[in-house]
Amino acid sequence: MTAPTRPLPHVLPQVDAIRGYITQVAEALDARDLDVRNVWLDPMCPRDATFILGTHALVWNESEGFIRGAFVSGAPGERTVLADPVPLGGGVLLEPGHAAWLIENGRVEAPTAYRPFALVRDGLDDKLAGYEV
Fold it and tell me: Which domain of life is it from (predicted)?
């Protein structure tokens, strides 16, 4: 059985709330033939997701946005560890196609301020709800 290239539903509704956005990012990466081999959601505090792209990985979390690097370790239920991590910048919720373009072209944007994940009423969940699964 091959690994999923779309994130599976998560048992925790708070984590599953990011699935639509992460699915759209995975689709944007696939559209650019970026060799998405696996995608998963996990864990909380902050919520995050991992995209395995060959020997590298892209991690999204609700505090920092996207970070890319060489995949060291990780699996559903545990934090992903990257070697030589590089933040993509540009904000926590990059438009999916733009995130894929940055990865494809090896680019980064200006860093943005850290978003404390405890800010439960800052509008991020409302924006995430706008991404369909």
Answer: Bacteria
In a domain, 1, yes or no: no
Domain count, the chain: 1
User: Confidence band (pLDDT; 50, 70, 90) for 1?
Assistant: very low
Residue 133 lies in a domain: no
* Lowest-confidence segment of 46-50, 88-92, 93-97, 112-116 by average pLDDT: 112-116
Q: What is the pLDDT of residue 122?
A: 76
Rounded to whole angstroms, how far apart are CA atoms 61 and 56?
17
Indicate whether 36 belongs to any domain.
yes
Sign for the CA dihedral angle at 3, 106, 72, 15 comes to negative
At 120 the pLDDT is 63
What range does the domain containing 111 cover? 13-128
Q: Is residue 2 in a domain?
A: no
